[in-house]
Amino acid sequence: MEEKLIQRLESAVARLESLSVGSQSRGIDLDAMAASTDPSIIAFEDLLTEYVGKVSSIAAKIGGQVQDITNVLSESFSVQKELLIKIKQTKKPDMVGLAEFLKPLNEKLMKAISMTEGRRSDFFNHLKSVAESLTALAWIAYVGKDMGMSMPIAHVEESWQAAEFYNNKVLVEYRNKDANHVEWARALKELYIPGLRDYVKSHYPLGPVWSATGAAVSVSVSAPPKAASKPSGPAPPPPPPASLFTSESSQPSSSRPKVGMAAVFQEIGSKPVTAGLRKVTDDMKTKNRSDRAGFVSAGEKEVRASAASVSKVAPPKFELQMGRKWVVENQIGKKDLLIEKCDSKQTVYIFGCKDSVLQIKGKVNNITVDKCTKMGVVFTDVVAACEIVNCNSVEVQCQGTAPTISVDNSAGCQLYLSKDSLEASITTAKSSEINVLVPGPDNDLVEHALPQQYIHSFEDGQFLTTPVSHSGGSSWALDAL
């Protein structure tokens, strides 16, 4: 009996030794296999299948830029899964190592941001929704309260709040137009709220858990430049764009070398104020010099005026593109612009116009006023929304109905509503001096100033927000146009 027991023990020891030898040659693969079977990783795979898969399948039906940006979203979540697996095999790095570790995720996020830049496309709101929402994946960078970042759950919620502004625009624009876009926007929200938020809450409420015995993050350090005796080869490439995950915050400002204008001001401050100045004698003063006259000739005035009037402005446009989109661009000083033949499937995009007036007769699907100054827009009916973005001193008048009017990053906006458009939902963000004029008694217009200042007070465990009210009359009657 004892001999059989000893034999079984010896065979078990031999088997363990063989497994130990095999694991040394395949140690990394075994660690990765063990990490991939962790409950948190399995739950993240379920998140990819259920939520990311749903967004991707709907985007495939839409195609175009919506599918392209959704592919970037899917790639970003896949990269995060790989990083979560690596975290279980890696020691907690410092800020420099963390930036190096998160570089693959940062590249995907920067790719999404780059797709929103340049000329504004018809799917700009889709692109911005994804680009803004992908910052939620940065919860994986949380390493403690001292880094100045919200805790993981709060970070996911805050990131989606920034993206929801554009996601709501997609819902409003396509609610009576294309059900696929509406389903895409709803699926995108479900991916983050409750999808990613609940996942982080269940598995990483205090941030990722790094391995205590894992390998350290390897940081690539470039070799110091050698003294070149002869110039050879092309010039070095420019530095890469700034990363969303940067290690500069971990270094004190006093220890970092001054660059750019900071270096110029430092050099100026290090010298005496009067260094290098010459004493001005009486004969050097303009009033005592006989070769200088105290007037400017008319010819010189004309040269200066003509030089100041020259500005780089793109050529104006006023055209219907593909039968779907009216483009009104770079119109300067045109008071008689008119769009008369339009229908409810067409959109109107007004860009870069100044000191002009556009009248839109008929019903259109959507109107966007972008980067305009002293611009007036008069329209009859709009199906989805009228959007005012990056504008200064504009006046918009609705003579019929408009379900939604949004004002974003604009100053000095006058909105004139008719009796049929009083139920319009007005959304404002990062804007000031917004006044809404509505019909009053005797058909006079009554002006209402929308608040731009708010008071936030903490009561009963939550913040209550109320607009600041000013005395002295916030509304008054104006003569009808």
UniProtKB/TrEMBL annotation:
GO molecular function: actin binding; adenylate cyclase binding
A Pfam family per the record: CAP_C
Low complexity bias: start-end ranges: 223-232, 243-255
InterPro entries: Adenylate_cyclase-assoc_CAP, Adenylate_cyclase-assoc_CAP_C, Adenylate_cyclase-assoc_CAP_N, C-CAP_CF_C-like, CAP/MinC_C, CAP_C_sf, CAP_CS_N, CAP_N
A cellular component annotation (GO) from this entry: cytoplasm
Superkingdom, taxonomy of origin: Eukaryota
Domain C-CAP/cofactor C-like per the UniProt entry, residue ranges: 315-450
Composition bias, Pro residues: 233-242
Annotated segments matching region Disordered: 223-259
An annotated GO BP: actin filament organization
UniProt record similarity statement: Belongs to the CAP family.
Protein name per UniProt: Adenylyl cyclase-associated protein
Provenance organism: Lactuca virosa
